[in-house]
Amino acid sequence: MSTTPTVNTSESHAIELDRLDPLRSCRELFSVPLVRDVVEGFSGPGGDAACVYWCGNSLGLMPKATPAALAEDLEAWGRLGVEGHFHAKHPWFPAHEFVRDTAARLVGASPHEVVVMNSLTANLHLMMASFYRPTSERFKIVIEDTAFPSDSYAVASQAALHGFDPSVAVVRLKPRAGEETLLTEDVLATIAEHGKSIALVMIGGVNYFTGQLMEMGRITEAGHRVGAIVGWDLAHAAGNVPLSLHDWDADFACWCSYKYLNSGPGAIAGCFVHERHARNTAGFGEAGFLPRLAGWWGNDPATRFKMGPDFVPAPSADAWSLSNPPIMALTPVRVSLEIFDRVGMGALRTKSEQMAVYLRGLVEDVAGQVGNPPHAVAGQAGNLPHAVQFITPREPSARGCQLSIAVRGGGVGGPRALHKALSAAGVVSDFREPNVVRVAPVPLYNTFHDCWRFASALRRALETSGGGR
Ligand SMILES: Cc1ncc(COP(=O)(O)O)c(C=O)c1O
Questions:
Q1: pTM value?
Q2: Among the listed ranges 170-179, 337-346, 379-388, 453-462, which one has the minimum average pLDDT value?
C-alpha cells in the first residue's frame, strides 16, 4: 500500500533542515563514532562516515572536552596530592557543588533539592529507605508493568525487606488489551482503587520500553490524594524532556547521567528530594523525624569535620549522600552539564519534537511503501515479513526523543534480523525483547540527515527481509 508521505522525503530536504537548525554546531562538541568502528567486520566504502547514533537513550556520546577535564584531575592529583581538595583548578572538596545548579535547572528544582551521587538503583533504594515506610494497612507500591527490571527488583526487594509478599504489595500498571502504552485516566483509576493501601507510587517519567512520557503532575497529585508518597525514575527523562519536579510536588526522583546527560558509562546519578523533606533536620526521637541511611557526607558541612558520632543532617538533599564523591566520575558530569546550561532545555525540546515528527513521517512513508500499513495492529500484519509499527505515542506531550518501533510479522530470523540489518548499515540502535527497536534522535548531536539515512537503511532492510514488492 502506498500512502502520501506526511513529510518531505528527499535527501536534499534533510540537508536543508540541518542547515536551518540553530543547534547544528552542538554536534561538533561530541565524538560521534565512525561506521567502521561500530560495525563489526565493516569493509568497503562509507566506513569513515559517522554512524547514525540512535543510542543516546542508552549511552550518550562523549563530549570532546571530557578527556582533557579528566586529565586535569589526574594532573592535579599527581602534582598536589591531598592538596587537590582545595587547590586543584576545580577543587575536589566542593566538586559536587559545581553540578548542583545545572542539575536543579534540568529537573525543575531548587539547588538545595538536588544532589549528584551514587548510581540510579542505589539512589532508588536510599530514597525508599526514607520514603517507603509501610504499615499493615498501607504497604503497596505502584509501578508500571513495563518498568525497567532494576526498578521491579528494587521495589519487590523493599517490600520483602519489610516483610511483605511482593506479589501482593507490588501493583503493576498494565495497558488496556491491545494497547502498548498507559492512559493517564487508567493510572489515576488504579491509584484511586487501591487508595489507602498504597504507600508509594514510583513510575518511570519516560518509559524505557515504549518511550511514553507520563503526566507526572497529575499522577503525583493523585498519589498524594490517597496519602501515598510519589517518586519518579527519570532515567529516560532527565536531559530529554523539560521537568518541573518542585512544582509537580514530587516527593523524590532519581535519574542516571549516562543517557541523555552524556556523562559516561556508569556515570554518577542524580537525586531530587522535595524541600518539605530535604529541609527536615529533626533528630531521632524529635517530632517529624525522617529516617535516612546516613554517612558522613550527608552531615551538615558546618559540623562534618568536628568528627563527632552524632549525625546532623544537612538541611538539603545532601543529607542523603553517604560518601565523598568520586571526583573522576563527577568531572564528566560537570563538563556535560555545562553544555546543557549553554544550550538550554527549551531549545533542545523544540528540536527534539521536530526531529521526532520528521523521523516518524519518514519511517511511516517507508513502511507504507513496502506494503506495511503504518498503523498495523499486532497480529494483523498477516504474514508480511517484518512489518514495523510505532508503539510510542504520537503526541509530543506524551513522548520525548525516543521512538520505539515494534517489529511485527514473521520475517526471516525474526525481529532481531531487522535490527541486525540496520546495524550492518551503520545504524547504532538497540533491541529490546521481544520485538522492539528503540531509536532516539538526540537534539544535541543528531541531525536530520541521520533521520533520512535511517529511513533509507530501514527501507533496504525491509526489502531484503521480503517486505518489499
Ligand atoms: C528506567 C531505568 N531504571 C533503572 C536503570 C538502572 O540503572 P543503574 O544501572 O544506573 O542503576 C536503568 C538503566 O538503564 C533504567 O533505564
A1: 0.94
A2: 379-388
CB of residue 144 inside a 6 A radius of ligand 1: no
Quickly list DSSP for 158-176: HHHHTT--HHHHEEEE-PP
Of 310, 249, 299, 242, give the one whose Cα is nearest residue 277.
249
113: nearest Cα among 100, 124, 126: 100
Q: What is the CATH number of the domain that holds 422?
A: 3.90.1150.10
Whether the CB of 204 sits within 6 Å of ligand 1: yes
| pLDDT for the residue 385 | 56
Same domain for 187 and 262, yes or no, is yes
Ligand 1: residue of 124, 150, 401 to mutate (most ligand atoms within 8 A of CB) is 150
Alpha carbon distance 215, 230 (integer Å): 13
Where does the pLDDT of residue 199 fall: very low under 50, low under 70, confident under 90, or very high at 90 and above? very high
- Cell digits of residue 253: 526522583
Instruction: Measure 120 CA to ligand 1 centroid, in angstroms.
Output: 6
CB of residue 119 inside a 6 A radius of ligand 1: yes
Domain that holds residue 292: 70-341
pLDDT tens per residue, range 326-368 = 999 999 999 999 999 999 999 999 999 999 999 999 999 998 8
Residues 351 and 324 grouped into a single domain: no
Question: Is the pLDDT at 16 greater than 50, yes or no?
Answer: yes
Instruction: List Cα–Cα distances, 277 to 243, 316, 425, in angstroms.
Output: 19, 8, 50
pLDDT at residue 413 in the model: 72
Q: Which of 55, 119, 143, 148 to mutate to test the pocket of ligand 1 (most atoms within 8 A of CB)?
A: 148
Residue 2 lies in a domain: no
Closest CA to 272 of 155, 130, 95, 443: 130
* Residue 203 predicted with pLDDT over 70: yes
Residue 190 within any structural domain of the chain:
yes
For the record, the C-alpha cell of 134 comes out as 509501610
Q: How many domains does the chain have?
A: 2
Report the alpha-carbon distance of residue 361 to residue 367 in Å, rounded: 10
